[in-house]
Amino acid sequence: MGTTGSQNVGRIPIDDNSILRLQEVTKVFCPGTIDEVKALDNINLDIIAEDFITVIGSNGAGKTTLLNIIAGVYPPERGGKLIVNGRDIANLSEHGHARYVGRVYQDPRTGTAAKMTIAENLSLAIMRGQKRGVGTAITKQRKELFRTVLVPLGLGLEDRLTALVGTLSGGQRQALSLVMATMSKPSLLLLDEHTATLDPKTARIVLELTQMVVSREKMTTVMVTHNMELALRFGNRLLMMHKGKIIVDLNHQQRINLTVSDLVDAFEKASGEQFVDDSVLLSSVDPMTRK
Fold first, then answer.
1. Beta strands in the chain (DSSP E)
2. Is the pTM of this model over 0.90?
């Protein structure tokens, strides 16, 4: 098992293939008040092209805050940098980040417009991150493109382009969200516990589709999950977060043949604390094996 207890364990520090580099990224909520919380604490992270990173940690560890910073929902504290292709995008708006980042949320209803058709949602997704005013007309050429990207899902959505998204099931809507997040070919795909609200059977389908889309599009991906089994099953790199820090960073070779028990041991060694989050331990039952 690889060394733990510091950030970027087992990683080459800076790489020409870096898609995104976080430098000294800190985020504090309600600063100077009794409610002050340091959600991220001096994060340094180098995300390499075609990395598929799974991020695990208990509630409050900083996982979603990390995604929100990358997505531009809010900036890091002064001095923190997010470098894409040599450019610091830390202070760009969320709209500015959208040209680099695609995201699928936990709630299937987030990120899609229920009262618009499948075709209209996909047409908007193509324009994500571009200047406002660019046309979103649904041309014959676009319809063919939409069918092309929907057919591999195997859900029949390519024959329902005029259906309102609000009429889709949770699994269908999340699969559509996955396609929408990758339509504009962003540099990075963020998956924010995107199967957490789905039933086990539907979650399994969406995870299989996720693996297919990420592989087909060669997407660099960061997937937050509460499920330790999934964190081990998916991707080539695993991060564990605790109190706003990355305390374990395992590359592909280091995580081969690891078990949930190994991850708990790694956490306790790196943090110096006992792992007591029952919600994470209970969620380690693998939905990929449920019927």
1. 18-29, 37-48, 52-56, 81-84, 87-88, 101-104, 188-192, 220-224, 237-242, 245-250
2. no
